[in-house]
């Protein structure tokens, strides 16, 4: 009888302690497929070779960035190696002051879609918190704006190629969810222009910078 009571007490004690142990267990490193949404500040402006000291010369497009992302992460001990892709758009647009021909350089434009493909390397600084650096290829469009004074039309004419680098912090906020904040810098060095009849120019050199501060939330599978 005493043995039965002892065994029953041991089973009950194990059942009560197991959930507590599971709750106290540290979150595992990010791994597997993930998808999410991002949004934040988007600033597109002339690069260093286009800057001048004239007050108000270097115009920029400033707007709200929004889009979706997807990626795959592989844990490597305390590190995480991942690949990722992103598709975004932006509300940024500019109007060039025609009295100053050295401004932005593309005429009256609005930021269009932006495609990014790259990788990232992160390190866990605490359970569930990842600090990472990222880099890769980016392809953006600038929509040329035309107006008759009443209606504004957008033609997708400029296509820019370049690279992106950035860094951020990602935090687990649930078993399969995460939130992140990151800064990204993009440098566009090549472009082409498509005319109204569909013909496209040869690639030419440009110097255009992009600064973005974004926040995002996502889900892991």
List the keywords:
mainly beta, Porin, eight-stranded antiparallel beta barrel, 1 helix
Task: Describe the protein.
The chain has 221 residues and is mainly beta. The chain has one domain (32-46, 60-96, 116-220): Porin, CATH 2.40.160. Helix content is 10%, strand content 62%. It contains 1 helix and 9 strands; from the N terminus they run αβββββββββ. An 8-stranded antiparallel beta barrel has the order 1-2-3-5-6-7-8-9. A hairpin with a 4-residue loop joins β6 (129-147) and β7. The longest helix is centred in the first third of the chain and has 23 residues, at 2-24. The chain is elongated, with a radius of gyration of 25 Å. It starts with a helix and ends with a strand. Residues 8-221 form the Outer membrane protein beta-barrel domain. InterPro entries: Beta-barrel_OMP, OMP-like, OMP/PagP_B-barrel. Residues 1-22 form the signal peptide.
Quick structural gist:
Its main location: membrane. This protein is mostly beta strands. It has one helix at residues 2-24, and strands spanning 32-46, 61-76, 79-90, 93-94, 109-126, 129-147, 152-172, 177-193, 204-220.
Q: Which class in CATH terms?
A: Mainly Beta
Structural class: mainly beta
Largest β sheet strand count, sense and barrel closure: 8 strands, antiparallel, barrel
Report low-confidence residues grouped into runs of 5 or more.
1-26
The helix count comes to 1
Distance between the termini: 49 Å
Computed CA radius of gyration, to the nearest angstrom: 25 Å
Please tally the β strands and state the result.
9
Mean pLDDT over the full residue set = 81
Shape, principal axes of CA atoms: elongated
Strand content: over 45%
The helix content is 10-25%
How are the strands ordered across the major sheet? 1-2-3-5-6-7-8-9
The CATH level-2 architecture is identified as: Beta Barrel
């Amino acid at each position: 009888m005493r043995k039965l009571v002892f065994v029953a007490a041991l089973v009950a004690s194990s059942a009560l302690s197991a959930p507590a142990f599971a709750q106290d267990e540290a979150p595992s490193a990010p791994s597997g497929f993930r998808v999410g949404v991002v949004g934040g500040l988007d600033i597109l402006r002339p690069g260093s070779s286009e800057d001048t000291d004239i007050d108000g010369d270097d115009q920029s497009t400033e707007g709200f960035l929004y889009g979706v992302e997807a990626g795959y992460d592989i844990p490597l001990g305390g590190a995480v190696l991942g690949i990722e892709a992103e598709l975004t758009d932006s509300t940024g647009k500019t109007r060039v002051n025609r009295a100053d021909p050295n401004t932005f350089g593309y005429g009256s434009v609005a930021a269009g879609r932006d495609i990014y493909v790259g990788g990232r390397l992160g390190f866990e600084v605490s359970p569930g918190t990842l600090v990472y650096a990222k880099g890769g290829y980016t392809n953006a469009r600038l929509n040329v704006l035309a107006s008759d004074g009443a209606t504004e039309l957008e033609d997708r004419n400029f296509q820019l190629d370049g690279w992106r680098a950035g860094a951020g912090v990602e935090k687990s906020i649930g078993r399969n969810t995460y939130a992140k904040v990151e800064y990204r810098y993009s440098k566009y060095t090549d472009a082409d222009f498509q005319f109204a009849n569909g013909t496209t120019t040869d690639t030419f050199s440009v110097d255009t910078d992009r600064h973005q501060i974004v926040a995002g939330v996502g889900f892991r599978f």
